[in-house]
């Protein structure tokens, strides 16, 4: 049965606002979906008159999607939102999500390959790429079915890079935007991809009217790739004639890409923290309870260095631990006086490289505790079980926040800590995080590969006076909340 065209606004993302667990008795339990993208899009409330199309990620989701058929999920599970969850065949989903999106596109944009031996694009990858195409086509089909004439469609992230062009073919009347939540690779690195894939991803996004990014840096890198791979014309600030320069070093910010007779505008929307939500949520009883437990664990009179991440290769948790070890080695005065509270929550555990990384994080934390720990002091408190309330408690008490990714589209932790912090918190921030563009001035900025430099920054952060920390935190919080999720979402819509 054909789905009626009812939606004037559509959002498409791999992960949706809800995920389900299937009980042994066949019951389904709904939980809020996690991650930065979902937090940003949570601005889409029940009154937004929007339909959110997402993929079924696990067995519980697939069962919920099957029960809903072509209809939307039960609004009781989705906070009243209209959500269509696509039941994509498990092998197609696994090849598209684990194979292409998370093992290849994610690695390219975050510069994660060890290039003497990786990547290898073989016959298996060719099959995974075909799966990625059909997974994208499933989204394009669903969106084409749901959208009213001239609807606006906001397609999210690297999982769905082909959707804009596929959807335009099916529904030329729609206004289509794509938003990247990741960094974008510079052309030399991007061209590690097989030529057809490199061109396919760019052509896919250029099928839309607009391509938007979290920072200017990523928008410029995208334009540079379009010029280098496709020979596209780049329009830059103050230049309406188009810039044919292929070296990717035009003067102003790239504002549009012209290719094969079409123009795709570029935009930047730096997703900010949701201050109202965070302040209210972080004062609830479950957070208070965890705060007491954490305080007891840290011990009276000690300072804390807090980090909160998915256990993700790009987050650079290992070098963060090495820097902390170096701090204890070079500044013995901090021994017994500081605890590194490290939350490294499970992520992408279907991929062996993520499982290995998790093991490595545990091992180094154990080594530091063995090397320096004493009867009454455990230098690293590592927690690997996801607990949002405990993360908020750690934000409240942190003296120092360590955010040192190798590369990150934005990094919302860097923006959330100053908002929730009780007494002010010094931020040690990687210059390779998108958040650096907005927070760099009041953070202690580090090169994420430089363990020695990071150890020095931790020392500076711990020594910062209470007044300076409080002042900086105030300014960081103001910058971090400049574009809260609701405004970020409306800005994307408005620009289309
Ligand atoms: O683009 C980044 C992102 O999609 C964020 O939303 C989130 O932090 C992370 O990746 C989630 O990844 P996954 O959906 O694979 O768990």
From TrEMBL:
Gene3D superfamilies: Glycogen Phosphorylase B. Belongs to the glycosyltransferase 20 family. This is Trehalose-6-phosphate synthase. It comes from Streptomyces endocoffeicus.
């Amino acid at each position: 049965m054909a789905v009626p065209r009812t939606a004037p606004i559509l959002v498409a993302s791999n992960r949706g606002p809800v995920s389900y667990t299937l009980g042994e008795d066949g019951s389904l339990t709904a939980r809020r979906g996690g991650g930065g993208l979902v937090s940003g899009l949570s601005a889409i409330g029940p009154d937004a008159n929007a339909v959110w199309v997402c993929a079924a990620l696990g067995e519980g989701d697939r069962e919920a999607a099957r029960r809903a058929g072509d209809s939307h999920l039960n609004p009781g599970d989705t906070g009243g939102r209209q959500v269509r969850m696509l039941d994509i065949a498990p092998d197609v989903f696994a090849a598209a999500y684990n194979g292409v999106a998370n093992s290849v596109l994610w690695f390219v944009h975050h510069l994660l390959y060890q290039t003497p031996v990786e990547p290898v694009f073989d016959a298996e990858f060719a099959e995974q790429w075909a799966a990625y195409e059909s997974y994208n086509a499933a989204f394009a089909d669903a969106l084409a079915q749901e959208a009213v004439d001239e609807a606006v469609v906001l397609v999210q992230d690297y999982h769905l890079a082909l959707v804009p062009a596929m959807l335009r073919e099916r529904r030329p009347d729609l206004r289509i935007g794509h938003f990247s939540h990741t960094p974008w690779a510079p052309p030399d690195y991007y061209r590690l991809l097989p030529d057809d894939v490199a061109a396919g991803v760019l052509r896919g996004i250029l099928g839309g009217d607009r391509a938007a990014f979290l920072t200017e840096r990523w928008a410029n890198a995208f334009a540079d790739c379009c010029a280098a791979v496709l020979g596209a014309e780049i329009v830059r600030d103050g230049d309406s004639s188009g810039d044919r320069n292929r070296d990717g070093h035009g003067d102003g910010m790239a504002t549009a890409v012209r290719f094969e007779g079409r123009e795709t505008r570029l935009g930047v929307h730096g997703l900010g923290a949701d201050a109202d939500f965070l302040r209210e949520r972080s004062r609830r009883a479950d957070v208070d309870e965890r705060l007491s437990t954490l305080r007891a664990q840290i011990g009276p009179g000690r300072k804390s260095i807090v980090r909160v991440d998915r256990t993700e290769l790009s987050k650079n948790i290992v070098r963060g631990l090495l820097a902390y070890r170096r701090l204890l080695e070079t500044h013995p005065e901090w021994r017994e006086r500081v605890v590194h509270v490290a939350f490294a929550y499970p992520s992408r555990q279907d991929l062996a490289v993520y499982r290995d990384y998790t093991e490595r994080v545990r091992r180094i934390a154990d080594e530091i505790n063995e090397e320096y720990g004493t009867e009454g002091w455990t230098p690293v408190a590592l927690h690997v079980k996801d607990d949002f309330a405990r993360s908020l408690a750690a934000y409240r008490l942190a003296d120092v926040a360590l955010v040192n990714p190798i590369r990150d589209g934005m990094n919302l932790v860097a923006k959330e800590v100053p908002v929730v912090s009780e007494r002010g918190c010094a931020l040690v921030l990687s210059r390779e995080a998108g958040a650096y563009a907005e927070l760099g001035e009041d953070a202690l900025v580090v090169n994420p590969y430089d363990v020695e430099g990071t150890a020095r920054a931790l020392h500076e952060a711990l020594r910062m006076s209470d007044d300076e920390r409080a002042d900086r935190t105030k300014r960081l919080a103001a910058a971090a909340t400049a574009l809260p999720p609701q405004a970020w979402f409306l800005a994307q819509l408005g620009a289309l």
